[in-house]
Amino acid sequence: MKKAINLSVVVPVFNEEKRLPKNLEKIITYLKKGKASYEVILVDDGSTDKTWDVLNDFKNLYPSTVLKRHKENMGKGAAVKTGMLASNGKLVLMTDCDLSTPMEELKILLQYIKSHDIVIGSRRLKEKKLGRLPERYRTFLGDIYYELLRLILLPAVKDTNCGFKLFSKEVIKPVFNRQKINRWGYDAEVLFIADKLNFKIKEVPVKWTHYAGSKVKIFDAVTKTLGELLQIKINNLKGFYD
Question: pTM for the whole thing?
Answer without folding.
Answer: 0.89
